[in-house]
Each structure stands twice: as C-alpha cells, then as structure tokens.
Amino acid sequence: xxxxxxxxxxxxxxxxxxxxxxxxxxxxxxxxxxxxxxxxxxxxxxxxxxxxxxxxxxxxxxxxxxxxxxxxxxxxxxxxxxxxxxxxxxxxxxxxxxxxxxxxxxxxxxxxxxxxxxxxxxxxxxxxxxxxxxxxxxxxxxxxxxxxxxxxxxxxxxxxxxxxxxxxxxxxxxxxxxxxxxxxxxxxxxxxxxxxxxxxxxxxxxxxxxxxxxxxxxxxxxxxxxxxxxxxxxxxxxxxxxxx
Amino acid sequence: xxxxxxxxxxxxxxxxxxxxxxxxxxxxxxxxxxxxxxxxxxxxxxxxxxxxxxxxxxxxxxxxxxxxxxxxxxxxxxxxxxxxxxxxxxxxxxxxxxxxxxxxxxxxxxxxxxxxxxxxxxxxxxxxxxxxxxxxxxxxxxxxxxxxxxxxxxxxxxxxxxxxxxxxxxxxxxxxxxxxxxxxxxxxxxxxxxxxxxxxxxxxxxxxxxxxxxxxxxxxxxxxxxxxxxxxxxxxxxxxxxxx
Lengths: 244, 244
Prior knowledge:
The structure is a homodimer. The first copy, chain A, is of the alpha+beta class. Chain A contains seven helices and nine strands, in the order αααβββαββααβαβββ. Chain A has two domains: 14-77, Arc Repressor Mutant, subunit A (Orthogonal Bundle); 82-236, 3-Layer(aba) Sandwich (Chorismate lyase).
C-alpha cells in the first residue's frame, strides 16, 4: 500500500492534498467501491490536519461524485450505476421477466495484439501499443444474446488473459487484481446488421438487425482503460424513455 | 370555453376541484404550454376559495409536473422536453453540427382507415375505429433521414388531413386546432433493417440498418392520442449516455 502523506511545506492547500490522498487510497483498494470510509475524526488524526480541512476535502470529493454521504450512516465510496447501461436492455422478447439474471460468458479468444488506430485513440495509447483483445459471447438461460469485443491496455492488465474468467464479472477483477476500479463510463448506441460471424454466434440470420453498444470505461483519474463493443440481437433489445 | 366552477356542495375537497378546473383550463387552451398562469390571489378570487386552497392545488399540480414555478417570476404550464426524444439523435454523420435545425416534412399520404389491432390497443380504441394514417419523409438540408408513420384517432382529429401541413410542426396544430395539447410521451427504441420502400425513401440500400423509434403521446388526462413510428437511417443515429 502506498499512502501519500500530507506535505506541510507544499504550497498546495492542505485540503487539496487530502483530496489526492483519499483518491489514492481508493485507487489502491484500501477503500473499495461502495465501502464506508473512516470518520472525519479518524481521517483528521490519520492525516494530522484539522477536522475542518477534512470536511472541506470530503465536500470536494462528494461534489466530484467520488464519495457520497448517507445521513446518519457515514461517507461511502461511490460506485457507478450500471443498471443504466444500454447493455441491460438486451432482454426483451424471449428473455422477458429475467432482467435481474447475471448473464453467462463464453470466451472465444484472449490475445495480445498491436492497438488498432481507433482503439488506441479512444484509450489514449499510441497505435501499435500492446492491447489485450478478448472476444466473448454472453448468454441468458444458455441462449446467446450478445457478442462482445473488449480491448484493454496490456501494460495495465498484464496476465488477465491467464485468469479463469468463465463465470466472473470483469470489473471486480480489474479492481481487485489490477488496482483499477471503474469509476464511470460512457456508451454510444448505434443500430447495425449481423455479419456472418456475429450471425453464427447469435444463431440469427446474416444481416438481421443488431444493436451495437460501444462503451469506454474510466478510472477516478478519468483515464480510459477499457473499450468494448457489444453487438446484441435486435429482437431482444428494447429501450424505453418517458418525455415530460 | 367551458370552465368548471367549484361546487361547494360537492364532497370532493375544494383544492381537488381547483386542480381539475385548472387542468380543464389548460385543456381548453385558456393557458397554453409554457404560458404563465394567473397569480394565487387572482385564482383565489376567480374560484372564490382561499389562497391556502389555491396554494394546495398548485402544489399538487407542480408535483404532477403539470405546472412549474420560477422563483420571483410566477407559475407556468409545463411543456414536455422533446429535446430528449430519440428522434433528435438522427443527426449523426452527414448532419453533424446541425442539431438545432428544424427538419422539413414531405407528406406521402393522409387517409382515414380502420384502426389496425396493435394501434387500436395502444390508442385505447376498438379495432376498426376510424384512424387517420399519415406517412411522411423528414429531411435535413433536403436529405431524407427518417420515414414516419403517424396514427391518430379520427374522431378527435377530424379534418386534419385537409390542412396544409407542409412546413408546420404537428403538436402546435393538435393544440391550437384540436384542443389537444401533448403533455407527455413515451418512446421505445429498437433496431431494424430497411424494407424496399423505406430504403427507397431514405435513399439507402435495402436491408441497411435503420433505427426504429415508436412513440405514444398523451394528453393531461393520460389519454393516448398519437402513435407514431419513425424509421431513420442507422448511420445517422448515435445516442450517448454517461454512467456514474
């Protein structure tokens, strides 16, 4: 564990140093997503600063959405709400009523390749840098509903390809094994049609409608660390909004 | 103009009667979407009730999203925010940077037909009831980007087919000519592929990706009064969300 301590000779304000130190402790998994952090008094003691300085630092972190407060409970590390992800909406039609089930995964490949230009740009790498490329099929009740291509900067995720990923969610592994908690993400939705390979994997006719969700996932420091494209059966996708 | 007055012998609470009366005045276009309504004192005088009763009625209407308050300005009739509509996102690629332009419309047909079963159900009609069916192509910079099918209950919209609709938005016409302000809507998004007709109209190859947006639009009384399906070019659709 590397904990940054406060440097009283630094011209950076103390509260700003505490902000950085707390972010570091979260990155180091001292506090993990959803966990309650120490009390203001404990933090003041640990960093050797006033409770007022801690209060100011925590306000900044709450403002940034990194921490949140629960009245009468304490202060917690915020965790992104992936129930809002488009990929949760591939559950229409044949999967009705099963929205809470965690999908299964079949990995088709996991290999280190030179970063393609588009992916390198999105992940702030140089084209040709080592990228871990993984492809998997996601299933519900054993029925494939989505093909996923995942690109990760290999320098950060070295060795991930050797783990047994079959039944596990990836984000807890990024967090626990690679000190890379995913803090936020953006998604782009676009319709497409199934190529021969995607059609085979999804067991649908070639050129059938598919919904394509691209996601870029970021750390606390807003570093993009995962690019993924999910291609799902069009007839199992339905997304709803209310306009008021 | 039919204004419901307050019935003091009615066992319904006075504030609830005021709520109904204000809704009626909005339906009757006495106050239109976005307009400031009378002050609390004026309303109290008009309905012959206390300011306290008016305050309670306005609170309910604000709670329901029918009115909203602007500090120091007054109370306004809420107007649904169609900038959130999926149909605003058919502007990617060749239309970049033109998101604020109002699309043009070319009407292909407007005819009264017996309601198809699915549409009748969505509009709470009986299958076979008279429906006004309209088809149009929407354009940006003269380029077609979307084909739209619109179904309206004919009993409510009798004569709409004879109006010159070319350059006009439909919702202001529903409001002004048919006393039917659209108060909220729901949309469903699903990917599809272009049929021969849609491909011709959009000037894209048959079986190209299209994004399909279904919308049901409602009045203040939650009566569904319009069903529409917009089929847009897949390559001009891109929808973005942030997950935190």
